[in-house]
Amino acid sequence: MYRIVKKEKMNEAVNKFVIEAPLIARKRKPGQFIILRLHEKGERIPITIADSDIEKGTITIYVQKIGKTTYEFGSFKEGDYILDVSGPLGNPTPIEKKGNIYCIAGGVGAAEIYPIAKAYKEEGNNVYVIIGARNKELVIMEKEFKSFADGVYITTDDGSYGRKGFVSDELLEHINNRKIDEVIAVGPAIMMKVISELTLKYKIPTLCSLNAIMIDGTGMCGVCRVEVDGITKYACVDGPEFDAHKVNFDLLMKRLKSYLDEERISLEQYKHMIGERR
Ligand SMILES: Cc1cc2nc3c(=O)[nH]c(=O)nc-3n(C[C@H](O)[C@H](O)[C@H](O)COP(=O)(O)OP(=O)(O)OC[C@H]3O[C@@H](n4cnc5c(N)ncnc54)[C@H](O)[C@@H]3O)c2cc1C
Ligand code: FES
C-alpha cells in the first residue's frame, strides 16, 4: 500500500500527488513512469514520475482527470492509500550535453517533461520550454520551469495567456532565430505529430514520449505497440521515448481511440454511482 502524503489541486483538471514510495524514489530517472492501481477493482494506468525526494522517500506525480480512473483518483485525499505502484518503468531519457534544447509540452505533458528539462539543464544545456494549453487556467508548472530554464513561453488556444495559438507557432519563431540542437515533445499525439512534421522540415533531431495505452508495462501484453521506422515496438519497454520523425502517429492516434465507447460508458457509470452516493 502506498500512502498519499500530499495532494494539491493545480486546476480543475489536474491534481499533484506526493506518494510514499522510497524504492522508486531512489531508482527513478527522468523520462520514467509508474503504473498504479488504485484498489483491487481498479485498472492499471501509467503516470510519469515528475519528481522525487530520496530523503523523504516520496515521488511526485501530476494526474489529469480524463476518464474513470483518473476521476476516481481525483477523489483520493491526503492520508489515503493506493493499492499498487509499480516502477520505475520505461527507459530513462538519454541526457547528454547537446546545446540548445527545446522542451515542448501540451497540457499535463508539462509535468511529464519537467524532470527531463531539469536534467538537460543540469547536464549543461541551454533549455527553453514551450507550454501549450487550452486556456490560462490549464497552464501548469510555469513557476517551476522558470526557476531553472533559459526561457519559458506559453501558448493558449484561446489567447487568455501568452501567445494565442499552438506550441508549433511559437517553436517556428524560435527556429527562425536560433540554432536548435534537439526538440523533445510530450503531450497529445496530435501535438507531437505537428511538432515532428515541423522539425523534420528543418532537420532538427526530435524525441517524443508516446502515450500509448498500457496495461502491464513490462512488454508482455502487447497493448502498447507502436510503429517506429516501420517496425513494431512496445512503448513500455522500448520507449516511451522515440525518434519522433520515425513514429507512425496516425496509427498511434487510431489505437488510442480503440475503446472510446467503453471509456465513455465507464465514466458515466462512475459519475452516476458517485452522484447516487451523495
Ligand atoms: C508513459 C505514459 C505516461 C503518462 N503520464 C501521465 C501523467 O504524468 N499524467 C497524466 O495525467 N496522464 C499520464 N498518462 C496518461 C494516462 O495514463 C491516461 O490519461 C489514463 O490512463 C486515463 O485513464 P482513465 O481511466 O482516467 O481514462 P479512460 O477513459 O480509460 O481513457 C481516456 C484516454 O486515456 C488513454 N488511456 C486510457 N487507458 C490508458 C492506459 N491504461 N494507458 C495509457 N493511456 C490510457 C486513452 O487515450 C483514452 O482514450 C501517461 C500515459 C503514458 C503511456
Ligand atoms: S504495456 Fe503491455 S507490452 Fe507494453
Q: Could you name the key traits of this structure?
A:
alpha/beta; binds FE2/S2 (inorganic) cluster; 278 residues; 9 helices; Rossmann fold; 7-stranded mixed sheet; binds flavin-adenine dinucleotide; 5-stranded antiparallel sheet; Elongation Factor Tu (Ef-tu), domain 3
Describe this structure in words.
With 278 residues, the chain is of the alpha/beta class. The protein has two domains: 2-89, Beta Barrel (Elongation Factor Tu (Ef-tu), domain 3); 100-209, Nucleotide-binding domain of ferredoxin-NADP reductase (FNR) module (Rossmann fold, 3-Layer(aba) Sandwich), CATH 3.40.50.80. 30% of the residues lie in helices and 31% in strands. It has nine helices and 17 strands. The chain has helices at 22-27, 68-74, 109-122, 142-146, 167-175, 189-201, 235-238, 249-256, 260-277, and strands at 2-9, 14-20, 33-37, 45-48, 51-53, 58-64, 81-82, 84-89, 100-106, 126-133, 151-156, 163-164, 182-186, 206-209, 225-228, 231-234, 241-243. The strands form four sheets. The protein has a seven-stranded mixed sheet with strand order 12-11-10-9-13-14-17, with helices on both faces. Helix 5 (167-175) packs parallel to helix 6 (189-201) and helix 6 packs antiparallel against helix 8. The longest helix is centred in the C-terminal third of the chain and has 18 residues, at 260-277. The chain is globular and about 55 Å long. It starts with a strand and ends with a helix. FE2/S2 (inorganic) cluster binds next to loops.
